[in-house]
Every structure is written in C-alpha cells, then in structure tokens.
Design goal:
mainly alpha; elongated; 85% helix
Length: 74
C-alpha cells in the first residue's frame, strides 16, 4: 500500500509539473529525482524490507516521466 502511494505521487507529480510548465520533460524529471532522494532518505531512517527500498528508489524517475507523457496526451 505504501509503494502504491509512492507510485501515485511520482505519476501525479510528473503530470502536474508538466501541465504547469512550458518545458517538455525537465520538470517531471526534477520531481522524480527529488522523490528518489526522498526515498533514499526514507530508506536510511525507516526500517523496511530491502525490496521496498530498492523498488521505491528505482521507480521514481521513470514514473514521473510517465506522468509527463500522460500530461502531454491529455
């Protein structure tokens, strides 16, 4: 359930940042990078399974990019 929240945050963050910006993908990639940094910090401070730490770090930037792609379609 927590990983689903991370997924929604990345996709929605990429979508919103692309909608309010004139740039194509850069804002979404910045949001994804910031979320990945937050995931690293969260992994160091909160006990969680290793697979969840790895998955939450890896998926942030691609999912933010997906949100940007969806914003360009809509």
């Amino acid at each position: 359930l927590v990983l689903l929240g991370y997924v929604l945050a990345a996709v929605f963050g990429g979508w919103v940042s692309t909608k309010i910006s004139k740039e194509k993908y850069l804002p979404a990639l910045i949001i994804g990078g910031l979320l990945a940094i937050g995931s690293v910090m969260n992994s160091m401070n909160v006990p969680q399974p290793m697979w969840m730490s790895i998955a939450s770090i890896i998926v942030m930037v691609p999912l933010a990019w997906l949100g940007a792609k969806l914003a360009k379609i809509a």
